[in-house]
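DATA SHEET
Item: assembly model
Revision: 1
Owner: S.N.
Input lines:
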Amino acid sequence: MLIRIVEHIDLNEAPAYLVSEETGAINLFVGTVRNHSKGKTVLHLDFEAYEPMAVKEMEKLGLQAKVKWPLYEVAIIHAVGHKLPGEPVVVIGVSSAHREASFEACRWLIDELKKTVPIWKKEFYEDNSVWVNAHP
Amino acid sequence: MEILLFGITRDIAGKPRITVPADTPLATVGDLKTWLGDQYPAIKALSSVAIAVDSEYAEDSQTISSHSEIALIPPVSGG
């Protein structure tokens, strides 16, 4: 598995890791910064992680996905730091023999990452900033 | 005992870690959550609060020791 927390995401890294002669399908999800949220202009996002735990939780998700679906490999890369609209902040990639498993596993991994991995984002608007999900 | 802080809880406390006084009677993760909420009422207004012991999510019943690395985990928002 390729599990990393990085300052800058290289979009070529996960596909290069996943591609192989035995693989029939590679599915890649890229999450990027949007320039708007709830009707407001977003200037930038700041991400921070509790890195040792975030890596551990991402490894657990990768291992669970490999049990749930017949996957060859899993890549999970998340960025930390100051991110501008359009920049990639998360990459999920999986490889499998056929496309169904790769689509399903990729979707499951990003959904679970958002629930359990200790990474936080703060949205900066023109007039204030807010930690996403912090309050009900 | 020191508690690592992240995200909004670091803003609430105004520092990256909280030191729990040595004579504070805290046996479990649940006791720690109650103590933190009493010290920083804004923590009680969050959607959820979890505690990690040695970088693993911990149940409220888990006992804590000052030899462990303990972190306060506010609602996550990665991705």
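QC remark: The CA atoms of residues 50 and 67 of chain B lie 19 Å apart.
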